[in-house]
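Progress against Task 2.4 (sequence-to-structure conversion) is shown through the following example record, which the project officer requested during the mid-term review.
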Amino acid sequence: MSLFRLVLVAIVVVVGGYTLPVVAEHGLNFLPYYLDDIGKMGWPGQFNMDFSAFLLLGSIWLMWRHHFAAIGLLFGLIIFVGGAPFLCTYLLIASFQAKGDVKELLLGKTRAAA
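Structure tokens generated for the chain above:
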């Protein structure tokens, strides 16, 4: 669990560190670039589509983990828009709340107890 947490922190630091200067240089309006690359049907667009699928799966999992309650829907939306730094932060916090119990981390407290 310690190595997993270390990887989560590393992802937040690396992706966050990369994102800050990009936002400073280009602003927050990434959608035109994102969609333009998809429309060009090249490797950058393929990567964006693949990444969108991972974001969608992560969001659905998180909403499911919270039984599609309002907080789960909110977390799912935040992670879909915020990407890896937000998902990694969520997982880091949840790993401590679960006291390192992987079953509880993945399933949530209620499902893990069943």
